[in-house]
């Protein structure tokens, strides 16, 4: 029983998706998804396990995702900007027997798949005969999202249909999603924010989902000015960029945008800390106090400021429905007092199942049935949480993307002109953090950036490089990352 697909039957004639190719009803979505499912089953049989899909944000993306679910498979979205090398890693790590892709990505997919028999373009999926669909239960795996961790290569976070459904119910109740809603998605479709909070929530509730493959401030401004949107959700960097865009518009254009925003009912920020200055500037411009919430790929959303009532700048709010949280000190003791920092633990039916093929890492990331987020937080006397940082400096958040310093270091060390390297995060008003790499060796930064383009997604490529004689290390030989940060001007 796939709740999101079952529910859509009640909205058959309503518009589900609007993209650059047109506008599609829930009925069209369901019919197309069934035909994708039939094609998947013809090629790979029912319950094909992980199915990679590389499709730009739009109607086709959703039909493929739902088609994989109806065929009993695990949907694994691949980012459109990933170079072939990162895609090859996903092919190998998932062990997928099927890779569905839009034919605009043929070159990349051919370079990534040694066994090309598993790869099919969307056009090759057309005209499948009718087949019997398998019985999919809520205990079945629904999707796998790759996320960076402290151990180098990204790992697949497996979420069951029950967990996805609970995440959707939680957000639907908290933010009162309804059929009258209309949202614009400009976020990438291989992460929870764009995929679950926006896309799945909209379709779970019979709302209209506008899908835009990339973020363009002028497009967002135009859609908000239209007065048709009721909701918008984005990372802090996007609000920062929208503020910059607003400031360079003519007064009458600004006023029209502001008038359009007045009719919207909610604007949400998340995926990284929202600077209070951005919240305040956006409030002056839009009249909306951004609702900041906190989440993670492994747990979906956990904490949220209230839909109704006061939103505290700098705070991420209180536990969402179906979610329990606690703070734990270094001795693993639960912290009951207010204003005492500790690691945030989360449990509930929203929390992921396991890391794909990584039982030890899965076991290490839990304490009993509590997931250890690695985020340090404190709670105020009224029960609202504030995120203070992370317990590892090897995780970087840039533009809302979570990036592993170790993953970048491992790639850099493959370069013949690099002897040693250290990747660190530098604070940035616009990006939250930007990635910086200190290297020893002869490699030159300009050519390094080019060299990295074939190996890492664009958002993982360091923005700052520094050639140095030696890297500071402690007596054990461990890199002193706080010292290394200071080397950058
Ligand atoms: C791009 N540029 C950067 C960065 N990214 N510079 C510094 N740091 C960066 N991180 C530069 C490019 O090199 C380029 O420079 C210029 O900015 C424009 O690049 P482009 O890729 O076009 O940027 P953009 O389209 O404006 O992208 C900004 C963005 C994007 C839209 C904010 O980063 C984005 O989509 N972020 C969202 C990620 C997300 O969805 N995270 C959710 C994870 P030049 O012009 O010089 O070439 S899920 C999650 O975290 C949990 C579950 C949660 O709580 O939500
Ligand atoms: P990801 O693994 O990409 O899902 O990123 C999850 C991480 O993003 C969390 O562990 C936090 O470190 C960070 N994060 C998400 N939302 C917020 C927020 N509102 N404030 C601060 N950090 C956040």
Looking at the overall shape, the CATH architecture of the domain at 395-485 is 2-Layer Sandwich
Inertia-based shape: globular
The CATH topology of the domain at 395-485 is GMP Synthetase, Chain A, domain 3
How does the major sheet shape up? 9 strands, mixed
Structural class: alpha/beta
Compute the average pLDDT: 96
Distance between the termini: 56 Å
CATH homologous superfamily designation of the domain at 395-485: ANL, C-terminal domain
Strand content: 25-35%
Bound compounds: methylmalonyl-coenzyme A, adenosine monophosphate
> What's the CATH class label of the domain at 395-485?
Alpha Beta
Q: How many whole angstroms does the radius of gyration measure?
A: 23 Å
Spatial strand order of the main sheet: 2-1-10-9-11-12-13-14-15
Number of helices: 15
Q: How many beta-strand segments?
A: 26
The proportion of residues forming helix, as a percent range, comes to 25-40%
Q: Which residues form runs of ≥5 with pLDDT under 50?
A: none
Put the structure in a nutshell.
The protein is an alpha/beta fold. The strands form six sheets. The chain has a nine-stranded mixed sheet. Adenosine monophosphate binds at residues 147, 191-192, 270-273, 292, 294-297, 316, 373, 375, 387, 390, 397, 402.
Describe this structure in words.
- There is one protein chain.
- The protein is globular.
- It is built from 15 helices and 26 strands.
- The protein is of the alpha/beta class.
- The model has no long low-confidence stretch (mean pLDDT 96).
- The strands form six sheets. The protein has a nine-stranded mixed sheet with strand order 2-1-10-9-11-12-13-14-15. Strands 16, 17, 19, 20 and 21 form a five-stranded antiparallel sheet that branches.
- Strand 1 and strand 2 form a beta hairpin.
- The structure holds methylmalonyl-coenzyme A and adenosine monophosphate.
């Amino acid at each position: 029983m796939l709740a999101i697909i079952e529910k859509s039957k009640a909205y058959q004639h309503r518009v589900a998706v609007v993209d650059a190719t047109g506008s599609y009803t829930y009925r069209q979505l369901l019919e197309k998804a069934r035909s994708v499912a039939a094609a998947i089953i013809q090629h790979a049989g029912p319950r094909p396990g992980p199915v990679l899909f590389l499709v730009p944000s739009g109607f086709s993306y959703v039909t493929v995702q739902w088609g994989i679910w109806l065929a009993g498979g695990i949907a694994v979205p691949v980012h459109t900007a990933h170079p072939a090398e990162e895609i090859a890693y996903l092919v190998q790590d998932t062990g997928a027997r099927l890779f569905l892709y839009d034919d605009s990505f043929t070159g990349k997919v051919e370079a990534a798949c040694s066994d090309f028999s598993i790869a099919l373009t969307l056009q090759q999926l057309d005209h499948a005969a009718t087949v019997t669909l398998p019985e999919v239960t809520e205990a079945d795996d629904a999707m796998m999202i790759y996320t960076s961790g402290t151990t180098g290569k990204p790992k697949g976070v497996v979420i069951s249909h029950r967990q996805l459904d609970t995440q959707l119910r939680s957000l639907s109740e908290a933010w009162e999603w309804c059929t009258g809603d209309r949202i614009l998605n400009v976020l990438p479709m291989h992460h929870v924010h764009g995929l679950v909070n926006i896309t799945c929530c909209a379709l779970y509730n019979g709302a209209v989902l506008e899908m835009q493959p990339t973020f363009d401030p002028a497009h967002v401004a135009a859609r908000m000015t239209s007065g048709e949107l009721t909701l918008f959700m984005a990372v802090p960097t996007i609000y920062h960029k929208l503020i910059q865009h607003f400031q360079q518009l003519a007064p009458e254009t600004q006023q029209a945008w502001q008038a359009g925003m007045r009719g919207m009912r909610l604007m949400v920020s998340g995926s990284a800390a929202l600077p209070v200055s951005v919240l305040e500037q956006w409030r002056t411009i839009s009249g909306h106090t951004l609702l900041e919430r906190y989440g993670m790929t492994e747990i979906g959303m956990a904490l949220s400021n209230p839909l109704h009532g006061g939103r505290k700048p700098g705070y991420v709010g209180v536990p969402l429905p179906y979610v329990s949280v606690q703070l734990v000190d270094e001795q693993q003791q639960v912290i009951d007092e207010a204003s005492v920092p500790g690691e945030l633990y989360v449990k509930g039916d929203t929390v992921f199942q396991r890391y794909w093929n990584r039982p030890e890492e899965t076991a290490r990331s839990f304490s009993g049935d509590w997931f250890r987020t690695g985020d340090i937080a404190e709670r105020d006397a009224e029960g609202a949480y504030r995120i203070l940082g992370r317990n590892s400096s090897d995780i970087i958040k840039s533009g809302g993307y979570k990036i592993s310093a170790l993953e970048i270091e491992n790639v850099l060390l493959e370069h013949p002109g690099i002897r040693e390297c250290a990747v660190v995060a530098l604070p940035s008003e616009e990006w939250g953090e930007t990635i910086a790499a200190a290297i020893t060796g002869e490699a030159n930064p300009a050519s390094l950036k080019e060299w990295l383009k074939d190996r890492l997604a664009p958002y993982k490529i360091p923005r700052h490089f520094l050639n140095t004689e030696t890297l500071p290390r402690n007596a054990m030989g461990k890199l002193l990352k706080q010292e290394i940060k200071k080397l950058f001007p």
